Amino acid sequence: MCGLILVLLGAWGALAPYVGPYFGYGFTPDRAWDNTSGRLYLSALPGAVVLITGLMIMMTRSRGFGGFCAFIAALGGGWFIAGSALIALLPASVGNSILTGAPIGTTRARLVLDTLGLYRATGALIVFFAALALGRFSIAAHKDHERFATGAAGVGGAAGLASLGSLGMSSSPTFGQPGQSYSPTSYQPTQTQYVPGQSDYPQEQFPQEQHPASQYPAGQDTFPQEQHPASPEASPPTQTMYPGRDDPFPPAQ
C-alpha cells in the first residue's frame, strides 16, 4: 500500500507542473508541457525517482532492497520540500537558470496553494509514506524466523522458542500433523507378573472373584470366606492353606 501511494505521489509531483497550466494552476511559464530547467530538476526528476522506487517497493520481496528504495523515495520527497532552497546555494551561473517561476494565480491564497500542492505538501507526504515503508521493511517477518532459527534448535530461551515455532511444532503435539510420527509406548511388565509356581493373574491386578475355581486346592472353598460369607446353615470356615498366614494365596515373589 505504501508503494502504491508513493507511485501516485511521484506521478503527481512529476506531471502536475506540466499539466497544471490547462487549469490555470502552477507556475510560469503559463503553457502546458513546456519544459524548463526548474520543472525538470525540481519536479520531473524527483517525481520519477519516487515513482520508480514506489514500484520497487510494491514488487520486491527483499527487506534490504525494499528498505533502500524507501530511503531513496524519502530523499526524493525531501528534494520536493527543500530543492529550490538548495538550488539557491549553488553559484549564480547555475542557480539562476533553475527556478520554479512565478505563480500563475495572483492572489496570496493561490500562491500558498500552488507551493503546497506542487512542492511542500507533496514532498511531506512522500517522506511520510517512505518512512512508513522503511519501518515496515525493518520488521522481521515470519519467514525470516523460519530461515534463521533452524540453527538455534538446541539453544534455550527465546531462540529455542523461535526455533520451535519455526518447525511448526507445539508443546502438545497432535498426531497426524506433517513431520510427526506416532511411537506406541512399550508394555513394561511388573515384578509380580507371570511368576512360575503362582497363579496366572496376580491378586493385585485382578479381584479374587475373577479367578477360576481351578486355582484353589481341592477341598477348599472356591471363594474366600471374607468375600462370600457363609449362610447360617453352612459349616464353619476351613483353615488357611499356609500356617501363619491369613490369606489363602502364596506371597508374591
Walk me through the structure.
There is one protein chain. This protein has 253 residues and is mainly alpha-helical. The protein has a domain at 2-141. 47% of the residues lie in helices and 0% in strands. The protein contains 7 helices and no strands. The chain has helices at 2-19, 37-59, 63-88, 92-95, 108-137, 142-148, 157-166. The model is unreliable at 159-176 (pLDDT under 50).
This entry's quaternary arrangement is single chain
Quickly give the structural class.
Answer: mainly alpha
Q: What's the gyration radius in Å? A: 45 Å
Could you report the average pLDDT, rounded to the nearest whole number? Answer: 75
Number of helices: 7
The topology string of helices and strands comes to HHHHHHH
Quick description:
The chain has helices at residues 2-19, 37-59, 63-88, 92-95, 108-137, 142-148, 157-166.
Write the layout of secondary structure elements.
Layout: H1 2-19, H2 37-59, H3 63-88, H4 92-95, H5 108-137, H6 142-148, H7 157-166
Helix pairs in contact: 1-2, 1-5, 2-3, 2-5, 3-5, 6-7
Core attributes:
elongated; mainly alpha; 253 residues
